[in-house]
Design a protein that fits this description.
The structure is a homodimer. The first copy, chain A, contains seven helices and seven strands; from the N terminus they run E-H-E-H-H-E-E-H-E-E-H-E-H-H. The longest helix of chain A is centred in the first third of the chain and has 18 residues. In chain A, helix 4 runs antiparallel to helix 5. Chain A has one domain: Maf protein (Alpha-Beta Complex), CATH 3.90.950.10. Helices cover 38% and strands 26% of the residues of chain A. In chain A, 42% of the residues are buried. By secondary structure, chain A is an alpha/beta fold. At the A-B interface, helix 5, strand 7, helix 6 and helix 7 of A face helix 5, strand 7, helix 6 and helix 7 of B.
Chain lengths: 196, 196
């Protein structure tokens, strides 16, 4: 059986809408210490995103030896600074203030486990550019979105009000939402999940 | 007031999710004869998409002189052949068989009227590549999606099962859905619709 090791509603929605049958069994990985340690070690963003996706898939695969388990993670890079999900609304506002008026890169890593081993991995990369919105816009945006902002890297949801933050999105939209869907579907078809 | 001169549910959803307030008042333009005539005249796809978007905005603007009216249209180009919405499931299946295994370009035009005049226009261009799916996949896809396929250029909905058709999407996802949203929002902010 196919298992999504993520509690993200939007990842589940993408797979479901594409007609894929799967179970949801979120990993309980404390990402922040792993992220902080790897960041302190100077590791590049794509290595960190991949390692976090792997850690999540592996944890769930350990208790589901017969299943195909999808782990996913996103990391954002702007001017060499790395971002994960903000821990508070204050942090979310700080992130948005830092990203404002600048281009950044959003990395969306997926690792798929079968039993004890990773059998497939990919990283989607999207270049995005935030417009130079006003402080008034920022305050209103953070107040209105509230804790919803804490569920996403970069403190934005492009699929809803986040569209008001950007002047440009170059790359795969599904990767922005947290799953390079076309590549994942391609792998799943190769495993006879979905008609080829 | 802002008016969307399109009956497309997904266009309305994009604007609504981005926090824009507007009314829906679909144009009653018979697109096919305009499309066929311009195509017979050898006009390029972007000129046709723009003219159709303009015709829709203009018709609704004529009866709403005080409003800002958004018209939109999409045209698909593959190997020099132009496609509009399919007229039947047979035509949808023929389109998909033609597009299969090939790259194509999807053009998404928007024209905004204020009173009797166009005040803004844009065209989003997305390069997409369909995978070489099997006949069995195609038959099952067309049967399952049914008349839903007739509402979209290219007979696919990337936001749902259409994701299974593609190996690559290069460009703005919102344009694929039928509205270059970030550009439209930028214009609307310049008209004080939405906080800057």
């Amino acid at each position: 059986m196919l298992v999504l090791a993520s509690g993200s509603e939007i990842r589940a929605e993408m797979l479901r809408k594409a007609g894929v049958a799967f179970a949801v069994d979120p990993a309980q990985v404390d990402e922040r210490p792993i992220f902080k340690t790897m960041q302190a070690d100077g590791l590049p963003a794509h290595v960190i995103a991949d390692a976090l996706a792997e850690a999540k898939a592996q944890q769930v695969a350990n208790r589901r030896p017969g299943d195909l388990v999808i782990g996913a993670d996103q990391v954002l890079v702007c001017e060499g600074r790395l971002f994960e999900k903000p821990g508070s609304l204050t942090e979310a506002a700080e992130q948005l203030r830092f990203l404002r008026g600048k281009p950044h890169e959003l990395l969306s890593a997926v690792v798929i486990f079968e039993g004890a081993s990773p059998v497939w991995r990919t990283i989607g990369r999207v270049r995005m550019e935030m417009r130079a919105f006003s402080d008034a816009f920022l305050d209103e945006y953070v107040a209105r979105q509230g804790d919803d902002l804490l569920t996403t890297v970069g403190a934005y949801k492009l699929e809803t009000a986040g569209a008001q933050l950007f002047t440009r999105v170059e790359g795969d939209y599904f990767s922005v939402l947290g799953l390079p869907l076309l590549e994942v579907l391609d792998f799943l078809r190769s495993r006879n999940i979905g008609l080829t």
